[in-house]
Amino acid sequence: MTSSKVLIVGGGPAGLEAARSVAEIGGEAILIEKRERLGGTPDRESYAKLTHHWRDASEAMAELAAAVTSNANVEVKYQAEVKSIDGEAGNFMVQVEAGGVAETLEVGAVIVATGFQHFDPGRATQYYNYYSFPDVITLTDLEKMLKEHNVVRPSNGQAPQKVAFIQCVGSRDRQIGNEYCSKVCCGIASKQAIEIKQQLPDAKVFIFYIDMRMYGYWENEIYWPAQEKYKVNYVKGVVSEVLPKNGQLLMRGEDTTMSRPMEVTMDLIILSVGMEPSAGTRAIAQLLGIQQNKYGFIEAGGAGGLDPVATSRAGIFVAGAAAGPADLDDSISRAGLAAARAVAAVRKAVLA
Amino acid sequence: MTSSKVLIVGGGPAGLEAARSVAEIGGEAILIEKRERLGGTPDRESYAKLTHHWRDASEAMAELAAAVTSNANVEVKYQAEVKSIDGEAGNFMVQVEAGGVAETLEVGAVIVATGFQHFDPGRATQYYNYYSFPDVITLTDLEKMLKEHNVVRPSNGQAPQKVAFIQCVGSRDRQIGNEYCSKVCCGIASKQAIEIKQQLPDAKVFIFYIDMRMYGYWENEIYWPAQEKYKVNYVKGVVSEVLPKNGQLLMRGEDTTMSRPMEVTMDLIILSVGMEPSAGTRAIAQLLGIQQNKYGFIEAGGAGGLDPVATSRAGIFVAGAAAGPADLDDSISRAGLAAARAVAAVRKAVLA
Predict the structure, then answer these.
(1) What's the rounded Cα separation, in Å, for the pair A5 and B322?
(2) What average pLDDT does this structure show over A188-192?
(3) CA nearest B122: which of B141, B99, B104?
(4) Please, what sign has the CA dihedral across residues A122, A128, A129, A134?
């Protein structure tokens, strides 16, 4: 017996868009979210502002969520997780537990949108001393400060005068096994640098990078203004260690453009931590029996490489950062494609 | 009187995916293409291989086209162009001319997938002497050579021993008005460098770049093997001019990592030309009355910035490189979202 329902796992931007699109094109969607709230990582991690248009992240996530909760063709289950799956495209039997209650869902297709987690900078990049020095923080720690308009040195509660971003922490780093680029951190750091300058106009802000990787909106609306209007200092360089010095932080490394050793003091250092597959992404890949790449992200692209949302199992699709580093536009776009593929799969099964 | 049909303008990867998705989710698609063939730029420009999986470009485009031509819910019109449009979402009257015959189409929504054109390196970057020196070619010229397994110096028909790619020709260049990044050229140059090494194992290949911008597939499957397996030489540097010297080409500029002037001779120089809006994209934006950004690409994102395929006019959507530089994954993903949005728009109009 075929089912025309589509199960979407994960209530972040990709899952919300997938559910909305499935419902708007005539399908029925069931969206399950493990937390008691929608909005995914931007909500959970209290992001301040999102591109485009520097929108308040809570407001933007609420807009995506409203398109889902206001649609009668989407059923949302909170505190819910997939426990097992059986069957095939057009006819999956999925055991879920929602709010402590087990139930079986009959669905025709599944969209995995279980997202990413931020790299833990204490795990393998000890030389930055994230867990030792309070004034070494991450991009996500800074988002919370920016949201509260309270960018301070955690060690003393004072506004920092010299701030440095260190790029590629947990990315492009073969020694720790993450040689991939996390794609969004150059843009996020540049966005945050602008926000720091808006909140603390007298602060000096530096970004230490390998390559500045941005394009489209990120380049035109973020990178250029960061350099030209906000006078953010971009330094091509490698930071090898962070040490304490007279109440400040000493950064040692190499300025690769100037080809010389670099030793500078900072008040606040932000580690631009990369994206890794979330625990939920790793778990559901195992559970659904779909291939992961060597970094643990869900392998996408299909046999011919022309289907960015296809997984290795027919009828199961992937959208958003569960398949690898992605920005909001990427996540929303692929969610739309995944919705189209999922509805196509159930239509094909129903018509067969 | 509302129409449930969706008009797709352009038969490249984005248009093909949009038409396929519209049809597969239950809509009716009309695809118009100005040439007599489908496949867009990869077909017209005789691309050799496409990522992912180094697929033969002709074969990959044929696969995308077959998904459209084999679907009874897509009507394809060749040698066809939009002449005018009237009406609103759910009820557009579109005048088209197909094969010299004028007709009026009633459609509920429109997806613009009119693509890009390669930057003309003679127009504003004369110092590379594209139109003077036969051995200065572009990425697209090289694709044709690679397809024919005939990578030679056009001046004498001999295999080059030293080959250089110059990145960001027509991109990230404020002087010519294109300060945006074309996003794909770093990956394409790296892919082509590998192909040159496969066809001419003894050639030395250099890539002169500002920042190497790659991620995902491009980084993991192209950039790392290019460096490590194929020994492509990446040089962070700026090339300021190309001159003739004893039958070779003299490149002058600055090696910015070494902070020193650079003067090297090459046998073949490839200009990594960027992406600009195609003439068709500029024309249709005017004709449909949809906003363009300052570079002429179609402005996308919607009022709230959360809809990567929305244009400034309700019921008209954009996918692929008509909205800005995009790789194949981007184009296909956004086409899927555009299909979902278009079908949602016509459903809403029909149900209203």
Answers:
(1) 34
(2) 97
(3) B141
(4) negative
Angle CA(A15)–CA(A19)–CA(A20) in degrees, nearest 5? 115
A216: tokens are 């489209």
Give the residue carrying structure tokens 């941005």: A214
**The pLDDT of residue B67 is above 80:** yes
Q: What is d(CA B185, CA B337) in angstroms, rounded to the nearest whole number? A: 25
Q: Is A349 on the interface with B (CB under 8 A)?
A: no
How large is the average pLDDT for residues A167-180? 87
Q: Is the pLDDT of residue B2 over 90?
A: no
Q: Which residues of A touch B63 (CB under 8 A)?
A: 304, 306
Residue B279 confidence (pLDDT) above 70: yes
Nearest CA to A45 out of A62, A30, A28, A58 is that of A58
Quote the mean pLDDT of chain B.
94
Q: 3-state DSSP call for residue A6?
A: strand
The per-residue pLDDT for range B3-14, each reduced to its tens digit, is: 889 999 999 999
Burial code (b: 16+ CB inside 10 Å, e: under 16) for B174-188 equals eeeebbbbbbbbbbb
- Region of B114 (left: φ > 0; alpha: ψ -120 to 50; beta: rest) is alpha
Grouping H, G, I as helix, E, B as strand and the rest as coil, residue A136 is strand
Interface check for B258 against chain A (CB to CB < 8 A): the answer is yes
Calculate the alpha carbon distances from B36 to A140, B61, B349 in Å: 52, 14, 33
Q: How confident is the model at residue A1 (pLDDT cuts 50, 70, 90)?
A: low
- Does residue A219 belong to the interface with chain B, where contact is any CB pair within 8 Å? yes
Q: Which of A306, A334, A341 sits opposite B64 (nearest CB)?
A: A306
Report how far residue A119's alpha carbon sits from residue A152's, in angstroms, rounded to the nearest whole number.
23
Note whether A337 contacts B333, CB cutoff 8 Å.
yes
What mean pLDDT is predicted for residues B218-227?
92
Three-state DSSP at A151 gives: coil
* Nearest-neighbour CA in chain B from A262: distance (Å): 15
The SS3 of residue B65 is helix
A53 touches chain B (CB under 8 A): yes
Q: Are A40 and A61 in contact (CB under 8 A)?
A: yes
Contact B258 A259 (CB under 8 A): yes
pTM assigned to the model: 0.96
Q: Do B308 and A332 touch (CB under 8 A)?
A: yes
Reported as a single tens digit per residue, the pLDDT across A123-133 is: 766 689 999 99
Residues of chain B found within 8 Å of residue A24, distances taken between Cβ atoms: 340, 343-344, 347-348
Candidates A181, A258, A341; nearest CB to B214: A181
Are the CB atoms for B337 and B309 separated by under 8 Å? yes
Provide the percentage of residues in chain A whose pLDDT is more than 90: 83
pLDDT, average across residues B164-176? 90
Can you tell me the distance from the alpha carbon of B197 to that of B203, in angstroms, rounded to the nearest whole number? Answer: 7
pLDDT band at B1 (very low <50, low <70, confident <90, very high): low
Contact criterion met (CB < 8 Å) for B336 and A334: yes
Amino acid identity of A252? R
B71 vs A: CB within 8 A: no
Task: Tell which B residues from 156 to 195 touch A, by Cβ distance under 8 Å.
Answer: 172, 179-183
Q: What is the predicted pLDDT for the residue at A259? A: 76
| CB proximity B66 to A under 8 Å | no
Q: Does B309 touch chain A (CB under 8 A)?
A: yes
* Confidence (pLDDT) at A305: 94
* Position A89, amino acid: A
In this complex, the residue of B25, B324, B330 whose CB is nearest that of residue A343 is: B25
**At residue A350, does pLDDT exceed 90?**
no
Q: Which tens digits make up the pLDDT trace of A16-69?
A: 999 999 999 999 999 999 999 999 999 999 999 998 889 999 999 999 999 999
